Amino acid sequence: MRYLQDRKAVLRTAREIYEQKLVPGTWGNVSQKVKNESFLLITPSGMDYRLMTIEDIILLDMDANVIEGEHKPSIETQLHIHIYKSRPDVRGVVHVHSTYASAFAVANKSIPVILEETAQVIGHPVEVAPYARCGSLDLAHQAVRTLGDGQAVLLANHGLVGVGVDVEQALNVCNIAEKTAMVSLYANTLGQVKELGREDIDILRQEFSCYGQS
Ligand SMILES: [Zn+2]
């Protein structure tokens, strides 16, 4: 079996989105592109996250042909592939149906940059891509267009997509977008949502790239 570390990372992240309640049931999907190769590893369609094993993770080429795997790949395979094709800097994509981000996706409102961690990890308001049905090529196109060179995008009436240099970073983007959406709604009930300014966002994001031990 090839790309064991990538398979493990995809499986670990898939279990995380379920355990962290970012998706109900078998919804959502996770993929990671293999470094310096035109392959990606993606979760299978409609499979219980609790029972998923590394053998269930599917190896695809960039034309969505199954290279290794018994199962049908995620319904949103085209969404993942289109993101990788348009963003050479991205190696991880996580798609979730989390509650608070979904509220913004339904209200057709972008998630504002109101917390320092939103500025640090995402660095831009999370905009809503125009509605397109799940699994459609149109959804992939709309999401890629609205995502641009950003880290996250909302899918109208559907959910959230986070991207990163690997699946761990993409998951962190989803977690921060979800938390920001929740705090924004609570702040609204208190009467005011004050957004961070562009200059502070840029400085916070830049400083964050040097944060931590690495
Ligand atoms: Zn979905």
TrEMBL record:
Record-annotated Class II aldolase/adducin N-terminal domain positions: 8-185
Pfam families, per the entry: Aldolase_II
GO MF: aldehyde-lyase activity; metal ion binding
Top-level lineage group: Bacteria
One Gene Ontology biological process: pentose catabolic process
Cellular component GO terms, alphabetical: cytosol
Xref: InterPro entries: Aldolase_class_II_sugar_metab, Aldolase_II/adducin_N, Aldolase_II/adducin_N_sf
Keywords from the UniProt entry: Lyase, Metal-binding
Gene3D superfamilies from the UniProt entry: Class II aldolase/adducin N-terminal domain
Protein known as: Class II aldolase/adducin N-terminal
The organism of origin for this protein: Syntrophomonas zehnderi OL-4
